Amino acid sequence: MINTAFAAVEGVAPKGISIHLAPEVLGHVLGIPLTNTLITTWFVLTLVILGAFWAYRKYRFFPSKAQVAIEALIGSAFDYIAETLESKDLARKFFPVIMTIFFFILAMNWVGLVPGVGSIGFYKEGHDAITPFLHPANTDLNVTLALALIAFVTIEFAGIVLLGFLKYGGKFVNFKSPLAFVIGLIELVGEIARLASFSFRLFGNIFAGKTLLVIAIFFVPLFIPIPVLAFEVFVGLIQALVFAVLTLFFIKLAVTEPH
Description:
Elements: E1 2-4, E2 17-19, E3 25-29, E4 32-35, H1 36-58, H2 65-85, H3 88-111, E5 121-123, E6 130-132, H4 141-163, H5 165-169, H6 178-219, H7 225-255
Antiparallel strand pairs: 1-2, 3-4, 5-6
Helix pairs in contact: 1-3, 2-3, 3-7, 4-6, 4-7, 6-7
């Protein structure tokens, strides 16, 4: 977790920057810690739901130019998913999940770059830095691991439902020959390792970018942060796209007949 220790309260002198991996706890609800990254996740989730509802209400049978452009982008995404899965029926089933993952991660990445997120909060006596109300959600490994679990369950569910439990399980437990058995175990380890690769890839890129941005703001506050911020907007888009596309590719592998 990254937290700028600039003076945010009268009488508190700026002391530099501090970098922490763990999110900060704002309080407890029924004994469950309420962290600022969790608050940010709920905030972004609310924005995404309201945005989807607004887009639905604004939909018109005779579309505007903006609606045509958005429909073209969504249509291109659907065509790409259908081409990858080699089936429009499968694309209709998994398109909502993949696009929801993309938009949710993109929203969390971009909200984390909004001024005030990570720098507006309250000051605790005896602490060198403020405790922000909101903090970039994807700099919390718990959040990225939860997203990885969602993708993992979706992938395994797709394979089991479309191929059947025994046929899908045969990809990982195969007694036809010693070599097939070893290959199956390797496949199983690789399948489980996706949890780590999914979560750490997203966490590492967003955490590193936020750290770079905070350091740039602290040392060269007038010029350097602008191109760094623009770069992080691009990185946020790419990371959301990578997460969604990898989920799509692994679904394709899961539903492919074993051979």
